[in-house]
Amino acid sequence: MTLNHPSHLLSVRLAINLLLVSGTLVCAASSVAGTSINPISIQSDADFTAVGAGSGCACVTGTDASGTAIISSWQINANGVPGVSIVSTNHSITRAFQLDHITVHTAGNADGIFLQNIASPASITFANIDTPPSSLPTFGNRGINIVSSAGVSVFGGSVKSVGDWGLRISQSSGVSVNGIQVSHSGVANPNSKSSATLPYNTSNPWLGGLIGAAPGGFLIIDSQHVTIFNVNADAAGYAGIELVRSTNCLIDSSATQYPDYYGIVLQSSDSNTISNSTFGASDYNGLVLRNSSYNKILNNRIGATGAIGNEFVAQVVGYFTSSMYIGWGSHDNQVHGNAGKTSAPALVIDDGFGPTLALPPSAGGMLQTKNPLNDQSTGGNPGSYAGFSGLGVFPAPYASAAGTQTQAEVCGNSFSGAAGYNTLGIDPNQVCL
Fold it and tell me: Is residue 133 over pLDDT 80?
């Protein structure tokens, strides 16, 4: 038989791609789908070498007409190092690249894909990443970790079984994420009861979450102009999505399902838009704003199962438990067109006198004094978070109440159950004038 027989064309998976680049005919071998390769490490343009090369990554499977290096269809098993690490030092990487259909499994605490200081066009498409932690608790085995980079795009694919964040974007701008699924992340996150017994430091998820240190699905920290579209965080630990000190970001058409504490959290993050999404949580809050202002919260479905008997008995239910919570210095947020339902108040606008939660007297009347964010004697609003200053979270003293919110800013919603808790006279369901 000849090599161009149809049966051979189906069975031979190594193809030769003939590409015309700047008038020069370039020949590049494309990898077999699922072919194994050692962990990829690229630190300069010279490291983008083709399959079979004696130096560099020997991982480039093709080059498109624009000169973009295509690294495609590899299966990588890594132990203690990232599956793919691309780090530019002093602009050592200027070449555009695409990671396409890369499958990564890590053993040991390391990232699946790690990008740092990337300014050239770069994309990650349809990655499949599995990074189970080797020890508990653990940090450092993120699915995709993008640091100090600009213009990176992530499209499609999945991340699962991670102990740290599924996707972490830090000190970056213009990153776009579309259509990725994060599942079962934050497995090292203790449950509510054990969290309350941890020391008063960042190892405690209640407190570590305020600075992005408690793991979950998607984290955007110290970043700007990040777009998250059509993503899903399923069973992600502390929070499905969290923004910390990030501005002018857009989260749209996305969903969180059953994170332990919160669906989505904005901490010290201003001028972001959260729209057309569904945020659920197994307990506590669908959406939380802390020290976050001038955000637009538009046309979302926001809910939480609400604390159940076990949390009440453990005395860890937060005074701010609700579908949505606006507090801790947050002000001038636009909250329109949202719907939510929970067994607690649907919307809490913190006025400094939040409800004191306790079991009904018939069930023991236990005050919720073991949640570190509650007043430790009453289980209610602590009035000040001066204690967090030692963690570098807030200056001391820091009032726990929300800043100014007006009826015009919070209106046109359809929250069910208790419409809201505040002494400001704001009805979140009132028609916007």
Answer: no
